[in-house]
Write a structure and sequence with these properties.
Number of domains: 1
Distance between the termini: 32 Å
Number of strands: 12
CATH architecture: Alpha-Beta Barrel
Amino acid sequence: MTFLPEPARRDRHVPVISVDDHIVEPPDLFTGRMPPAFAERAPRVVERADGTETWLYDGVELPNIGLNAVAGKPPREYSRDPVNFADMRRGAWDIHSRIADMDLDGVYASLNFPSFLTGFGGARLQSTTSDPALGLAATRAWNDWHLQDWAGAYPERIIACQIAWLHDPVLAAADIVANRERGFRALSFPELPDQLGLPPVRSTYWDPLLAACEDTGTVICLHAGSGGSLPTSSEGAPREATAALFGLSAVIPAVDWLFGLVPVRFPGLKIVLAESGIGWVAGLLDRLDHVSRYHECYGDWRGTDLSPSEVLLRNYWFCTLDNPSSFCQTDRIGVENILWEVDYPHADSSWPDTQEAIRRQLAGLSQSDLERIAWKNAAELFDFPVPPSAVADPDSF
């Protein structure tokens, strides 16, 4: 695989908080973090006879270690997933190199989702093994590593994001409460858990977990692709078609959670749709208002005097990295509901040109609105302040 020349540090116009980047789990993640009874069955990286690396977990090979970790590569190679850690830019899996790449890009802080081993919402780490005790231990070990070694190495730069044990919401709720005390501010959760063989979000099954998130202010992040397959156009359609339809993977869970009455039952819940784009949001709001004219014939919207569109704007935040045609709709979407994402180290990423992307795409907005989208909304939502020095002088960090 080819590495492009090392990019120069970019000029900075504004501090940035990215609410969607990814970790490629490093080979030593579980070392020393699992109970002794599970040490031999815990996930570990092994080398195959052909020299490629893979995760081995409870006797099962998981063949993808990099999951589109193509930052720093030419676009012609984006379709080739890294097969060794040496094939990736080190910032994909090493926290010190990650901070260096954030500095290069002008990103002050970042929220990082898991990758292939774990699944964006933690489901793969739990479903690969048939032993619930092992799955739970691995889930907690991942959270411990994330808090201690990843976010903990730079707590002022990384927003700690956990995964939950999906097979016992009462136990998961207790962990969420404890994890908030430890410093976690977010939870990555499967957007459509029923596609993973779990109860749907409209079920009361999830209520203990949802209540814990509401009570602690833990933000629920629904990443595209975390709850099953991505939408595509037809059987055998090319991968490019799936990439073009990526935003649809946010519309469906947004509506499912909304009409599942999740934000009605838990009005203080904060829901982020990651890697979703914002181009669809105004259209959905219009459709919700249209349907509301005759929703009495269904009788499904209940428990609140607010309309579906009002609840959507109260409880949801939407992420963008490349939606230049949509910023004329900020009045409809709500500028306070829009967050910026970089998606490092994936093919969609704006790295290393995030500052230029913000300058170009948000040029028609006021400075106040630009700052809201670039960092202020995220700082308020995740209770993650940006130092006044970085606001006054983005070159200071």
